[in-house]
């Protein structure tokens, strides 16, 4: 009996696909035609394989080259997208059929070598396997200083029905949806909860530019490029901290008016690195934290301010075109918000940056 192939889904994660294509073209010695070919079955992949001999390894090779290019540019976002791409599910011949792993080529980058692609969610053992893949993805993202919560971007669809004559599963495929139709249509089934990811990366050495994730700070920083361990520069001051003004330091003047705030307000006047607390743009039912300027700091909302503050601090030097002094101050801003909740935490972070 001939089984109809599963319908295409290679453009389901179009946001990741586009990002990796940009990276790939920075330096493409193997002449891979497009990142999308790595997500196709072997017959279709052969049309854009370039100099890669094994179509089962085109997916890995594409991710590996994209990661190499991003690393050379010091692009943490790019490296993160390359890692997510490596973990995406490939098309297979039918619902429930696993894709073949790459065995003939070893990845140059150990971060890529540590990962494999998601498998069809209807295949045997896929639920546990895909969860393991996302767990490792989160750890690799954290180790390069990225946001490990983005690991769920690689999650796939709900399982389809084995033997479905349409081969449709629960998929989508839209090359025109820049956000990825799996996201836009709410079809992505995340492998891990936020707490599971934070627990998975808690012992990642070097996460966030040398700062172990989940350190002594109560905000459970993950992927933090700002060394939140520098608490001495921003003592949140139990009992002496005016929440509205976010006093930090023993007996020091209000941060918003003190040296830190005034020194940095001018540097950040054209770059809004503030955090908002309240109703969010991504439809979360409860109030939460999110960047005030999502065009600069594109991150989903979170109920833990540490997730947003660490992401902003990780990106601030590149996105705001400012020097190391702002990155140092961002460490203090994280500390200023540590232990506070709601709007008080957001106000403390913003005031410490002079915003």
From TrEMBL:
Entry superkingdom: Eukaryota
Protein name: Uncharacterized protein
Species in which this protein is naturally found: Aaosphaeria arxii CBS 175.79
């Amino acid at each position: 009996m001939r089984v109809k192939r599963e319908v295409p889904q290679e453009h389901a994660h179009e946001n990741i696909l586009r990002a990796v294509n940009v990276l790939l073209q920075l330096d493409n010695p193997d002449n891979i035609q497009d990142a999308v070919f790595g997500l196709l079955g072997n017959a279709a992949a052969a049309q854009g394989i370039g100099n890669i001999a094994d179509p089962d390894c085109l997916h890995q090779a594409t991710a590996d080259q994209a990661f190499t290019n991003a690393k050379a540019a010091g692009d943490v976002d790019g490296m993160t997208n390359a890692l997510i791409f490596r973990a995406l599910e490939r098309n297979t011949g039918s619902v429930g059929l696993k894709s073949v792993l790459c065995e003939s080529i070893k990845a140059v980058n150990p971060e890529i070598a540590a990962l494999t692609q998601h498998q069809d969610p209807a295949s045997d053992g896929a639920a546990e396997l895909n969860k393991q893949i996302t767990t490792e993805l989160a750890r690799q993202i954290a180790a390069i200083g990225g946001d490990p919560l983005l690991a769920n971007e690689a999650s796939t669809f709900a399982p389809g029905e084995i033997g479905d004559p349409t081969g449709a599963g629960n998929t989508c495929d839209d090359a025109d949806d820049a956000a990825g139709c799996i996201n836009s249509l709410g079809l992505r089934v995340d492998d891990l909860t936020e707490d599971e990811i934070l627990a998975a990366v808690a012992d990642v050495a070097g996460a966030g530019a040398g700062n172990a994730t989940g350190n002594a700070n109560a905000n459970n920083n993950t992927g933090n490029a700002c060394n939140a361990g520098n608490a001495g520069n921003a003592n949140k001051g139990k009992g002496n901290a005016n929440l509205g003004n976010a006093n930090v330091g023993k007996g020091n003047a209000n941060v918003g008016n003190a040296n830190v705030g005034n020194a940095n307000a001018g540097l950040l006047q054209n770059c809004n690195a503030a955090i908002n607390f309240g109703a969010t743009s991504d439809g979360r039912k409860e109030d939460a934290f999110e960047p005030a300027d999502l065009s600069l700091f594109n991150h989903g909302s979170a109920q833990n301010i540490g997730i947003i503050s660490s992401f902003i601090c990780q990106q601030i030097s590149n996105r705001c075109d400012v020097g190391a002094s702002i990155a140092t101050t961002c460490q203090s801003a994280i500390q200023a918000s540590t232990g506070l909740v709601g709007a008080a935490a957001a106000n403390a972070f913003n005031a410490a940056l002079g915003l």
